[in-house]
Structure formats: C-alpha cells, structure tokens
Fold each of these.
Amino acid sequence: MKRRESMALLGCAAAAWPLAARAQQAGKLPTIGFLVAGTPSSHGQWVAALVRRLHELGWIEGRTVTIEYRWAEGRTERFDEIAAEFVRRKVDVIVTSATAAIVAAKQATSVIPIVFAAAGDPVETGLVASLARPGGNVTGLSIQQTDVAAKRLELLREVVPGLRRLAILGNVDGPAVLLDMREVQTTARPLGLEVVTSEIRRGEDIAPAFETLKGRADALYVCIDPLAHSHRIRINTLALAARLPTMHGSREPVEAAGLMSYGPNHPDLWRRAADYVDKILRGAKPGDLPVEQPRKFDLVINLTTAKALGLEIPPTLLATADEVVE
C-alpha cells in the first residue's frame, strides 16, 4: 500500500476512534448486523463494496467495529428470523436490501437504525414517509425500480424484432416486485404487447414457471429480486433452452448468460450505503438522513448470448452500452 493511502486510512481510523473508544470502554465494539437477502455468490461483491468503504471511513472489522453476516439465500422466510436475531443481539445498526427484507427488519424493531443499500420504491411500499424526510428508523438508497420499466421495454424492442408477446418472471412475495410487474404491464399495453406473468416464491418454482411459458412469449422480463438474483444461472439456462431473450435489472445475471440488463450500478449503491452507516454510528438519526437515488444506470449486453439466440444487436445500441460481455 502506498504511503499516502496508508496515511489516509490511519486518518479515517483516527476519526472513528472517539466512538470506537467509547464502545470498547463499554465492553464491546459497535455492531453492524448484515441481513444479506441473497447468497455470498449473488451478493458477495456488493457486500464487499460496502465493507471496503467502511474501512475507508475508519470502521475496520474486528478493530473498530464488529460485523455479523447473515445470508438469507433469497428465502423470504429467513428475513424475519434474522431480523429477530439482530434485535435480540442488540446490534447498533441493521444493514440490508430488498423490500421484503427491509420490511422484516422494520417490523422487528422501531428503535435500531436500519440502512437499506437498495430498495425498489421505498415510498410506494411504505418503508419511508418521503425520500427527503424518511422519518422513523429507516433510510438508505432507492433504485426507483418502476421508473426504468419503460426504458427496459424500449431496449428489448430494439433487440428483439417483432416483439409481440412478453413474459414477466417475478417473486410475488416481494412488494417492490409486484409494483414492477404492474408497471411493466401498464407500459406494455399501449405498445401493443401481450403480457403473460409467471409467479415464483421459491427456487423450486422456477422450472415449472418456464414450463408454463413454452410457446407463449418472445422475450422474458426478469424482475430484480434476491430470489431471482440468487438463481440467475438457472433462470438464464432455462431461458436459453426456451430461446427466450432476457432483460434483467443488474449486470450480474448478464455475466451468467442473460441477454441484457439496464439498471443502477449496485456496487456503487452499496458503497454509498456505508456512508449512512458511518453517520449513524457517529450519532445521526436515520429519519433525518434523506433517501438517495442512483447516480448511474448501466446497460450491459451479452454478445455470446445474443449470437446463441440468433439476435443481432444494433450497432447504435452497442455503442451506448456501458459493458459488453463476450
């Protein structure tokens, strides 16, 4: 590590020292409870981005802060269990993402601060009173999930000639997913698209869902959600077998053979979530910290998948892509 970087990290650690010292004098370090909605494979890179930023801010795991990780593996029933455990352990702040997990944490405690790294639509789903003044014990970053539905459909229509029948795959246990599905249906109607929805609630529902879609769709819109994200390889494998081009909400499914994605840069969101944790551990109230929105949206295209499906990506679209997977 360069001397300048070392000095910067030492400076951050020194800035965190007063709170860390008080915590140590009280017998324990401040504790962050990490309710990770997915798996180490699906969410590990995002979690790492947040932890790196905490380190930059002086919160060094095992030295100035304790982090308890719990992986829900996309299973909605685990959210309540983990949230209850963190309340029993009296953690200082709970960090999570995905509306269903945030709801579980909010229902478990009205006292412990909750920071969400990504929420579909926190106002519409009742997580916060408003983006500017969240109130209560919850704040974080919104991905404004429904705001980009029209853009995703526009991109799909550019890539899939003659798109007439659209399938939507979504975990209906997710409140934000229901909003997303509704928005896609509303947007598709004036475009003359026939829409068929396929509902899932657990990993075991995915294969049967594709069976019901056989011959009924020209493309598949996958609603971003911990369950779908954790099972992105299976979803894309089945979609390729059914020759269905897929649209996703983040880049990771495109790395796993999905056709394309358009959505916020999640590592950046999670990194910014660390700033909320830092402020709260230093005494800020979550209800006073405005909910922020994405700064950057990424278009990612998988050319290998496009070739396998016999699709030609328009050169103008390739030129605007933030990343092309080959």
Amino acid sequence: MTNLGMPFFLGGEWRGSLSPSGVLEIRNPFDNSLIGSVAQAAESDITVAVERATTGFEKTRRLQSHERYEILAFIAARIAERKEEFAELLTSEIGKPISAARTEVTRSVLTYQLAAEEARRIGGEVVPLDLNTAGQNKYGIVRRFPIGIVLAIAPFNFPLNLVAHKVAPAIASGNAFILKPSSSAPIISLKLAEIIEASGYPLEAFSVLPCSSRLAESLVQDARIAMLSFTGSPGVGWSLKAKAGKKKVLLELGGNAGVIVDRSANIEEAVRKNILGSFVYSGQVCIKVQRIYVHADVFDEYVARFVEGAKKLKTGDPHDPATIVGPVITSEAATRILESIEEARLHNATILAGGGHVGAVIEPTVLINVSRTSRVFCTEIFGPVVTLHEFSSIEEAVAGINDSPFGLQAGIFSNEYKNILYAYDNLQVGAVIVNDNPTFRVDNMPYGGVKDSGFGREGIRYAIEEMTEPKMLAMGM
C-alpha cells in the first residue's frame, strides 16, 4: 500500500501513513484552502522514536563544542537561504501576516546563531575545597552535562521560532530530542527536519512527530524521557507536569499582559506601540497587550488616540504586506473570542472599536468599563481584543496588573524612575519592559513567567542550563 500524507521524520527515516485515518489535513485559516496533508505518527512509531533517541544520545553527548557549533550554524544558514519559502508557509499554514512571518523567520535564524555561540561557551568553574583541613591539597571542577532526551511540545503561533527555542538549546547542550509540533502547524517543522537531517546531527537522535495528544501524553510519561519542554495553554501544561513524574519540566504557558501608561509618558509613542502590541498577528501572542492602565490625567487623550489608531489597522488577507490583523487560527477560536466580547458587553462594557468579524478575521476590538469577572479581563483572550482602565496612582496600576492568575511579562511607559522602579519591584511577572510593550522579546533574554504563566526559563543560555546537570569532580593533588 502507498504511504499517505507528507511523511514525518523518525530517528533517521521518513515515514508516511498506511491509512487515510492517519493523515491530518492542514488548511489555510484565511480561506480554508487545503495546504497539505501530513501523516501522523502511530503508537508503534512513538516507541521507535524513543528507542532511537536513546541510542542517538550516546552520540550527541560526545559531540565536541565545535561540532555542535557547526551543526547549529548550518541550520541557521539554511533557514536564512529559504527565508521567503518559510515565511510564505507560515502565512499559509497559520494565517500569520507576511510581514510578521518574515520577522519570525529572521528571529529563528538568530536563535540558532545564538545557540551556536552558546555551544562554545558551556563552561564550568573551579571550586576551592581547602576550606578546612579535610580539603587540604584538593580542588574541585564543576561542568555541565547533557541530560538525555528532551521532549519538545510546541504551539501553533510561532511554529518556527518557538520550536527553535527548544531544538537549538537541545542540540547546543548535546541532548537528543523528540519534537511534537502543533497539529495546526506541522508542515513547517517537517521542513525544518529536512535541514537538521542534512546538518550532521546524529540522525537517530531526533524525531519530528505529528501525533495525537494521547500519544504525546504517553511520551510525557515515558521514564526514558529526561525533560519536557512545553509551550501552550496553562490547562494542558500543568496537567502534563503532573504526569511527568521525576523528569525535568520547563513550561511556557499563557499570559494576560498588562501595560501601565503614567502621566509622564510620551502618549503618542505609547499609543503607537500599544496598538501593535495589542493587535499584531490578531493578538495570538502570549505576551500580547491585553489590559492597559492609563493615568487619569491623560486617559481621555490616550483613549481617543488609541481608538482612532485601532480603527485604521489593515485587516484581512495575510498575504497582503499591509495587513496587520489576519485570521485567528480556527473558526472555533473566532467563536470563543467573539463570545467573550459579547459577554463583556452584557456585563456593561462599552465597545469603542471593533467587535465584528468577517469569517475568522476579527476586527481590532477596544473595550472600556470591563468587569473584573469578564473573560476578556481575567483569562487569556488570545485574540485582537484589548481593555482600557483608568488609574490614579502607580500603586493602583500595579495592583490592577497583579490582579490576575498570570504573570508572564508587563510593560510600563514612564519617564519617572521611581514609578519604573516601583513597577519592577512589585509587578508579579517574569519581565518588566520599560517604554515598550510586554510583547517585546529578544531571543537571548531569559523568558518565562510566574503563577499560571509557567515554570522555568527559556532564552538560549537559560534553556541550556535547564537541559544540563552540573557534575562535580573532586581531586587530590
């Protein structure tokens, strides 16, 4: 029987499906056109992937620093050469506007370049042991060692760069890995597998396996997996952590990012940046701006400028270079977002802009007078919706942002250092961004959150620390 669907990569070989039921159709979120069909891994494939990764790890852990550097530099260079191909695929597969798609490809190149450099910098330290007579004439060395097989589970919204934040540090630190891409965006990961296959990385050491959630969960529970690195929804992430047993876990989960605009801020700059931070890629970014707290002295001016700017944003076809707001990932996601907007309206919120939709393209929506119990306030909306709130003191604004189960990143627009420092000291988040959006991220930053937003940190050097263990050597002289 002929194999069906685009094949997946399984520890050195490409495999298709023998049954139509094992094939996943990938459709363009904008017009529902068929992009391609992808074979899904079966339970027997999962078993083989772990067995081969176990064998492959014996090779990856012995790779020299210069070899890991060369592998990662090769991957970066090949992605750069295929930039437009990858960008077009991002736009077709997940509906990301082409300008944002090109930015993601550029960032992913940098992520692999950073990992290549970090592969040459994984060092250690000398530990003095002669602190008492027992340690006389002894010295200690600490080095970091790879931990084994990393299971990487990636989301749909950045299916190239967020995959890079798992795969690149795994390679840099000498680990094997199994990648489970999002079911909404597997094709781009399979294109990446083609590049890794040609890079010189041991072939048994990695697999890219589109598969069901049930099979992914079985991998999480497999004792041979050393670490789970998961990016996705909080409910799924914390559930997987509970099932992960004794393995290391790194979770990058949801957000409900807040921004403070105090009276000393440059209002024009704050509005311009906040509009993009609220609506870029239809708000399908875990650090997108969702709640904006504006000082009472400038609130009316800010609101008028913000609403005017939101209404001017280009929406529609993501292949149009001028488009900022394209479709959300599925019609189900669109329904959820629209229902949340309507719920807020029924609880006396006022819609200042947007609220409508054409198919899966939702208009940039601006709300005020939002109830704290509304979903658009207290959950991650993951759509082109933002709420505006008035405050009178920095303490009130910080308390408002902290009034959330999430704590990924926050922003503050201010030219008063005491307000900036107060926000930094008191905001319950993983990062505070000054005079820019919480959406700001450079790929060498430590990235992650507190509370329901996650566990551990990504960012290449920090992820390498998560994917390695220190080992002590004590020697006598």
Amino acid sequence: MENKLDCEIVRDLLPSYVDGLTGEITNKAVREHLSGCKDCAAAAARMKEPESPEPAPQVDYLKKVRRRSTGRALIVGVVLMLLGMAMLSFRVFYVGSAVNPADVRVDVLVDGSDMKLTAGLASSGMGISRVTFSESNGMVRLTVYAVPKAFFNHGDFTASYTAAGDIVQVRNNDLILWENGAEISTAAARLFAAKNPFVGDMPSNSRIAAILGIADQFGSFSNELETAAAPYGWTLQLENPLADAYVSTAQEMMTADACVILAMIENLDSVTWVYETETGTQEYTITAQEATAAIGRDIKKAADSATDVQTLLQDLGLEESDAWEIPE
C-alpha cells in the first residue's frame, strides 16, 4: 500500500506538524512528501520562520495620542505665553506704579462734593494711566499711577470725583492739595508734610532746607545744632563767600528762610547764618521772637495747617524760589 499524501492533505497537516502535534507515522509521511514537493517544503519552511512582529494597533494609538498631546501642549503653551504678554502689557501700560507725590503736579477745583483735577508728571518719558480715590470724613485722598508714555496716555490727565458729602480737604497721598477753600501750592504742601517737632532730627531739618532751596540760594553749607539745653539753635555755615554788595539781599533771604524754618521746627528758638565776606566772617541770627515780629503773628502758630504755611510763604515772598538766588 502506498502511503503518499496529497499536497492538500499536507497543507492541512503542516500547522500541527510544525507545532509538533502529529504522531510519528504522520510525521514520517509528511517528511517523505516534503522531500519530494518543493511547494509544500517552502510552505513548511515559512511556517518555521520566526514571525516578524507587526506594530500592535495599540502602539499606533499611543503614537497618535502622543502626537495629539504634543500638539495640545504646544497650543496651550502659546496661549499661556500670549496671555502672559497681555497681562504684562496690562500691568505695565495700564496698572502702572504709584507716583511719588513730589513728582507729579496736580491742580484741583472743588465745588461742594464735586472735584475736578488735572495732573501731569515731571518725567517726560512717563504718562499717567489712572487716578484712584478714597474718602473719609470729607477728606479725599488720591493716588496717581504712572506708566511708560504711549499714544493713549500722553500729556495731562484729567479726572472727576463726587464725594459722599462736601469735600473739606484733598490729598495726594500725604501731600495736601486743597483745604479751607483754597488750592495749596506744592512748596507749602511739602513743607507742611516735613514739619518737625525736634531740631535734633537733622534728616528732617535737611528736608526742610531742601524744600526751601537753601543750597540753590547760597550754595553748599554745613550744619551745627545746639540741642544740649534751651534755647535750641541751628547754625548754617555757608561755604561760598558773599560779596559785600549782596549782603543786604542775602540777609533778606536768610530772614525769610529762618522764619519758615522756625515755623516748621516746633522747639527751635533761633537760626544763625555764618558766612564770609570781603571784610571777614559774619554771623546773622534770627530768633523766634524776631520772626514773630517780622510776620506780625506768632511764628510757632504759622504752620498749624497747610493753608497757614501757604500764607506764610506768600507773606515772605517765597513762592518763587528763583527770585531769591544770589549771583555768583
């Protein structure tokens, strides 16, 4: 009997044969067929070759997920960057920073509970973005915010404000701009804010001298204080000599400055000026009593309010400091 198998039967047996699941008789018959049939032998050889791993569907899915995640992350990053730039621009060009009251000019007009103001900055590279207001018991406090100058914040800034009741005082932070029905000058407001109870506080004394512009009037000077016991004094030693022709004018200026200093420093009793002239060293002293006589009222009550300080400056002719400069 012939045990040769047909190709169709061998093809059906090959998977089991390759996996070692057929019996010895079947294996012998299959081997004999494969030895004489190239096609079936080739098929058997392909079955025995290790299968090439094909990318699993889930791997492709993960790649797609990663690509989508990368794209979304990029979009989110761009959105966040644009949002950050927008917030920074808003902060820089609108929110701004509060301006030192000494660096801003504010003119106010008050009518009962209504106020209008115009503000401008000393710095040409900055503009005013906004002005905020708060009020308490008739006192309105404003804060000016500055930003880099742009087309929408150049020039003067105007604003209006209506208080809950009649306005009695307007301040730019601590500087009084308006009170008792009158607008307060910057010089008067700064002097009132620098009011000092003790002459021994030299930094505060220096602020008063700087506001008065004593260095602009006379040049550099040194200071000496008498604080050991009353009467308390402040001596200003001028470094630049004075020509005899200008001594009289200089003494007028010294008297006016001394009156303000005596009003601003509560326990100060006298101001002495020491300077060199063509004829030698000179001293010129103004006491509190002499200052009182000069202005016609108690010098120690001449700075009770910002309005009083402004009246004192007007009476002494100190509103325009340039008029008091001594020629070199």
